[in-house]
């Protein structure tokens, strides 16, 4: 692969300082939320971090609960999806220490609590995807599956999990 | 690993030419469908291609929408699952150029829009699994989770995502 | 990485004999259940085993079917989640021969058949997570997504898939 002496150059040219960028954008990575059960927020294997599903939890409370399109508007669900991403990044930072280590947001799983006639799952999960690209640029561009589920833990309206590669 | 000079031999002995096989079977890989949001159809990490969830989209239109067992018959849902696979392969070909590079269809996620009393999700997703084995032989044999979801993007009746390894 | 001569020491100090531990706990790994379709119970890529979704199947019969919170109690669903784990381990043992080869339960996907007002998915899937930690200790600690689905194959109340790393 590349030799050690050209690494820093590649780094300075191509890479955003993600931690600074989050601050510049006015975002705050919250305290990592406690898992809702006996599992880890993140499990690393090789250079992949498998991130547990996170809920739109703020200060221990679900920000938006219920079914999107029935109890929760599209805009509220989009706000919830963004909160999920901040919680996800919080869990990752707790594991790897520095978000600058992220190489790629590889995959996002977006679960939207929804009724049988709902079809705007991408509109909801786009709020999460857009936020990742806003922060991480091309590094944040990911594959994704967005689906409509019957219900979610603690009646959250959205849940998001992820696979993230890092160095 | 193996030296370069025995690669072609291994290749000729064990491997089907998948691109030819698709033509021989009379199948056509369609134009890659546009993503339904701000994400990538495929994100590669190492030798793994994480494929975004695809819908039964033909020429920009969902072929079968609604709930399987209510609005959509089992046979229609099976046809939709096959269309998903062609779209998935189209996305993969757009990324890696040549489907002969596929080493293994590692995992399929099959999401079937269904009601609470439905139980034939495997019948639907088998249409996708069988198609992959028909084209790729043992290379196409994969692990899988098939579940029944409340609804899917654009009211599609099926969505399929995948992890595929390639060289 | 580590040299060959310190491997056994690390092994004896840190590692539980998982096969013995399963027996000591009085658990029995059942015969691997037949797949409900044309897929593999497990597909290995590198050192990762992608495990297909398993159902709470005992001797070919679903132990608990229906919707959790409606047809199935929380306790019954928890029992079903544990049966899923035994089936998962059975499938893995059939593939890799010896469960002592497990390095990490990397990720669990927990699908709970549930109604729109259900929120106790973690309570159900914790039964699976706790069982894995009981058997495998820290090796069994995993990331996880628990969601509520509309329905599952053969009307099972729970389905669990997994990614497991091994040597």
User: Stretches of chain A where pLDDT falls below 50 for ≥5 residues?
Assistant: 7-13
Number of distinct helices of chain A: 4
**Which structural class do you get from the secondary structure elements of chain A?**
alpha+beta
Kindly provide the radius of gyration of chain A, computed on alpha-carbon positions and rounded to a whole number of angstroms.
16 Å
The CATH class of chain A turns out to be: Alpha Beta
Please identify, by name, the CATH architecture of chain A. Answer: 2-Layer Sandwich
Biggest interchain interface, per-side counts: A-B, 34 and 28 residues
The string of secondary-structure elements of chain A, in order, is HHEEEEHEHEE
List descriptors.
homotrimer, 167 residues, alpha+beta, 60s Ribosomal Protein L30, Chain: A, globular
Layout of secondary structure:
Three copies of one chain form a homotrimer.
Chain A lengths: L6 H8 L3 H7 L17 E4 L2 E7 L2 E2 L2 E2 L11 H23 L5 E12 L7 H16 L6 E7 L8 E9 L1
Parallel strand pairs in A: 5-6
Antiparallel strand pairs in A: 1-2, 2-7, 3-4, 5-7
Organism (chains A, B, C): Acidithrix ferrooxidans
InterPro entries (chains A, B, C): Endoribo_LPSP/chorism_mut-like, RutC-like_sf
Pfam families (chains A, B, C): YjgF_endoribonc
Describe the structure.
Chains A, B, C: Residues 19-156 form the Endoribonuclease L-PSP/chorismate mutase-like domain. Chains A, B, C: Pfam families: YjgF_endoribonc (PF14588). Chains A, B, C: InterPro entries: Endoribo_LPSP/chorism_mut-like (IPR013813), RutC-like_sf (IPR035959). Chains A, B, C: It comes from Acidithrix ferrooxidans. Chains A, B, C: This is Endoribonuclease L-PSP. The structure is a homotrimer of 167-residue chains. Chain A has one domain (4-166): 60s Ribosomal Protein L30, Chain: A, CATH 3.30.1330. Chain A is of the alpha+beta class and 167 residues long. In chain A, helix 3 packs across helix 4. Chain A contains four helices and seven strands, in the order ααββββαβαββ. The radius of gyration of chain A is 16 Å and the shape is globular. In chain A, 32% of the residues lie in helices and 26% in strands. The longest helix of chain A has 23 residues, at 74-96. Chain A has a five-stranded mixed sheet. A two-stranded antiparallel ribbon of chain A has the order 3-4. Chain A binds chain B through residues 48, 104-108, 113-123, 125-126, 129-130, 133, 141-150, 163, 165, and chain B through 36-43, 45, 50-53, 67, 109, 111, 113, 115, 149-156, 159, 161.
């Amino acid at each position: 692969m590349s030799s050690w002496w050209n690494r820093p150059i590649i780094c300075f040219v191509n890479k955003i300082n993600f931690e600074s960028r989050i601050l510049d954008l006015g975002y705050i990575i919250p305290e990592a939320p406690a898992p809702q059960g006996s599992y880890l927020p993140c499990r690393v294997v090789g250079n992949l971090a498998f991130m547990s599903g996170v809920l739109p939890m703020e200060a221990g409370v679900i920000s938006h609960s219920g079914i999107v399109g029935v109890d929760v508007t599209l805009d509220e669900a989009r706000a919830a999806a963004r909160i999920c991403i901040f919680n996800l990044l919080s869990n990752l930072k707790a594991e790897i220490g520095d978000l600058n280590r992220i190489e790629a947001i590889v995959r996002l799983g977006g679960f939207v609590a929804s009724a049988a006639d709902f079809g705007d799952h991408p509109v909801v999960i786009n709020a999460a995807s857009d936020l990742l690209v806003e922060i991480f640029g091309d590094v944040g561009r990911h594959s994704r599956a967005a689906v409509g589920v019957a219900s979610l833990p603690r009646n959250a309206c959205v849940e998001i999990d992820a696979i993230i590669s890092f160095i």
